[in-house]
């Protein structure tokens, strides 16, 4: 059994959190390769180390002093060193980083130092070898990760090291400089390391006990999802229910490795398992989760005999393409076609877009419905379960929610519903209650 673990910033925010992390790692000898983030917030008004480093970069760019901010950073690490009782000084590291910042180092190098120092300390505390991410995570010229090369090098390193701590978030650019993933990117490092180690599980430790069936800001105390498939996760995270960086899924999914979302503060809680294939499609609640997003616009195009007009859809989509727009959904009827687009991307071009569609396909009518919310009801338990869609729609009608659009994937894994934004929260609660309470 081999486990790769990744700990997020809140799990490493101070010495007390470092100790919890070390206890988790030491409690299971299968927990061998550990990826860490930079220390995060200790409370709601605190600052993340990565943000402080970014602030240093901006100060330098604006030719201002970094002294105060840099001191905040070093004192955070010094507190951790003292709290862990480590007999080391980071002075040399600080001096090197400070000198690099003052010499106009790029923002990637500067922000990467949060993870670097975090991993150095964790390796020291655990007495594990430290493997620098710049020696094993490689990027391509276009900024994407070179998965093949990273995995090849990591595999080789793992033949030499049975245990290791690796900083998340950054790696090496082809010119030898440091490159980072987008924010939250330590999840991706963990996923690559898990794939390279051919781990039995990728444990992603954070400050929540897994994924919830619905947004807790809308539904009171929603249930935790025990098991979810990668496909279901994709449907829910597309709708904004994220616990992981989107790009973190790919390396482990490809290697058929499950992800276990766990809570550093409640380590006994089993959390959520994200699996390539579920043990069973029978789920007590039938649905796995419900999520949604506001801020959608529907452009509804009607034309008699549209179905027999070859190339109609293509022409409409060409207009979108010319405006650099992507669509979220494309439900269609016999003589109607609806394009659902994120409203934010339409702010500047809505008028021109509809005018061009009119010019290109000469429809009988074109109407624009704004302030639409989309809701995805997701669950492998719905596949073949008679009446699950009926349950969704009767719950919505009982709560006076007018359904403006329905799109059911042919896999029956999800039903997507468009409702007025004002009814968004009511709709989420109604659907959740219909299945869970
Ligand atoms: N420290 C980085 C951030 O704050 C990366 C990470 O934590 O995953 O975004």
Could you provide a short overview of the structure?
The protein has 437 residues and is of the alpha/beta class.
Describe the structure.
- The strands form three sheets. The protein has a seven-stranded mixed beta sheet with strand order 3-2-1-6-8-9-7, sandwiched between helices. A five-stranded antiparallel beta sheet has the order 11-10-12-14-13.
- The mean pLDDT is 94.
- It has 437 residues and is α/β, with parallel strands linked by helices.
- Helix content is 37%, strand content 20%.
- The longest helix has 20 residues, at 107-126.
- Helix 3 (67-84) runs parallel beside helix 5 (107-126).
- The chain is globular and about 80 Å long.
- It is built from 13 helices and 14 strands.
- The protein starts with a strand and ends with a helix.
- The protein has two domains: 3-275, Carbamate kinase (3-Layer(aba) Sandwich), CATH 3.40.1160; 289-435, VC0802-like (2-Layer Sandwich).
- Bound molecules: aspartic acid.
Which short descriptors sum up this protein?
seven-stranded mixed sheet, 2 domains, binds aspartic acid, 437 residues, globular, 14 strands, Carbamate kinase, VC0802-like, alpha/beta
């Amino acid at each position: 059994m081999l486990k790769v673990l990744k700990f997020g910033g809140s799990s490493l925010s101070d010495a007390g959190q470092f100790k919890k992390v070390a206890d988790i790692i030491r409690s299971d000898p299968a927990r061998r390769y550990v990826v860490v983030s930079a220390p995060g917030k200790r409370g709601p008004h605190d600052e993340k180390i990565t943000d402080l480093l970014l602030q240093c970069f901006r100060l330098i760019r604006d030719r201002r002093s970094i002294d105060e901010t840099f001191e905040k950073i070093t004192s955070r690490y010094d507190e951790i060193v003292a709290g862990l009782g480590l007999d080391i000084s980071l002075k040399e590291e600080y001096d090197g980083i400070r000198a690099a910042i003052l010499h106009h180092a790029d923002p990637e190098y500067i922000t990467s130092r949060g993870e670097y120092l975090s991993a150095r300390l964790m390796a020291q505390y655990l007495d594990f070898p430290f493997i620098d991410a710049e020696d094993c995570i490689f990027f391509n010229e276009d900024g994407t990760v070179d998965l093949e090369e990273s995995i090849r090098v990591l595999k080789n390193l793992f033949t030499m090291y049975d245990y290791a701590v690796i900083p998340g978030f950054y790696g090496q650019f082809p010119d030898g400089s440091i490159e980072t993933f987008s924010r939250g990117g330590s999840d991706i490092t963990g996923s690559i390391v898990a794939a390279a180690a051919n781990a039995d599980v990728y444990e992603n430790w954070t400050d929540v006990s897994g994924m919830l069936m619905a947004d807790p800001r809308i539904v009171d105390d929603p249930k935790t999802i025990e098991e979810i498939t990668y496909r279901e996760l994709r449907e829910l995270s597309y709708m904004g229910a994220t616990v992981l960086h989107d790009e973190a899924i790919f390396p482990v999914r490809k290697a058929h490795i499950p992800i276990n979302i766990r809570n550093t503060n409640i380590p006994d809680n089993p959390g959520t398992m994200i699996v390539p294939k579920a043990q069973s499609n029978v789920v007590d609640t039938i649905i796995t989760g419900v999520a949604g997003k506001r801020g959608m616009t529907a452009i509804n195009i009607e034309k008699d005999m549209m179905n027999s007009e070859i190339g109609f859809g293509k022409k409409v989509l060409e207009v979108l393409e010319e405006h650099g727009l992507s669509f979220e959904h494309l439900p269609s009827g016999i003589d109607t076609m609806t394009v659902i687009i994120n409203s934010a991307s339409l702010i500047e071009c809505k008028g021109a877009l509809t005018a061009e569609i009119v010019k290109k396909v000469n429809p009988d009518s074109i109407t624009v419905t704004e302030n639409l919310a989309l809701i995805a009801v997701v669950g492998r338990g719905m596949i073949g379960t008679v009446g699950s869609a009926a349950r969704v729609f009767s719950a919505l009608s009982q709560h006076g929610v007018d359904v403006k659009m329905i799109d059911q994937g042919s896999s029956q894994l999800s039903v997507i519903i468009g409702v007025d934004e004002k009814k968004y929260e009511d709709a989420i609660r109604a659907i959740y209650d219909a299945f869970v309470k």
